[in-house]
Specification:
It is built from 11 helices and 8 strands. The protein is of the alpha/beta class. The protein starts with 11 loop residues before the first strand and ends with a helix.
Amino acid sequence: MNKLFPAIKPYVNHTLKVEEPHVLHVEECGNPDGIPVVFLHGGPGAGYDGSHRRFFDPEVYRIVLFDQRGSGRSVPHAELKGNTTQSLVADMEAIREHLAIEKWVLFGGSWGSSLALVYAQTYPERVLGLILRGIFLCRPRDIQWFYQDGACRVFPEYWRDFQRPIPEAEQGDMVAAYYRRLTGQDELARMAAAKAWSIWEARCATMKLSGELVNHLGNSHVALSMARIECHYFTHQSFLRPNQILDDMEKIRHLPATIIHGRYDVVCPVEQAIELSNAWPDAELRIIADAGHSAFEPGIVDALVTATRSMARHLT
């Protein structure tokens, strides 16, 4: 079974000003002359960390990672102004041009898979291929499953904790109720809501509860950006037309792709990967029998590293 590549450090960091007030943190690592690949983190709002460099052979790939607007080391932290899907797509183009990359591989999981698909459908001529994990199609039904009626029946004890910051009278629309608190002026209520939102996701993301993941997403800095930005996107239908990703698949069906999804993914049920695969017959679909949503479960790690190796062979 494949494991992550050894830990590496970036060979250069960039600070890229985009639309006011946003300034992006971007790094490059691996081989400066290698196959360009961009890592797209989840959330939106989660940011990336050093472990995400390790899905790629550093001798083969020129690895680009960046914190999306309001996330990680990009500033302003947790900022919602000008934070839309279209803005993130434009940011990716700005990064590509700044780094003088003609075409690159897109690697994204969860929300990162959504962003990869929308970017590819917008700029198919700039894409060498896609490696996608934990498919999230951003439809109302997908939001409803995790934040209103679906996952709550799988993890009812965790759901009670998610409900706790919200009065019973408002629990009929949890996303709207959380949005009011996450964008309100009460700092204590805002942080309590952010932690409850992020810990709910962390608890559901793995087959076996990961205390490390709960602690990471429950960290105040990460929780605030992820909860605010996720809730902002989901309140605005992810700034996409209804069913946009599946409706626009004809634009990218010719591109090589691998779709990887955990059989027991409760955050983004596997039906989303199946529907994407049905619309993309030439893409390789791998359903991992003993995994949930997290990129770091052993079966998912094995599949992702296999996919990056395979993509490199295909492109060279």
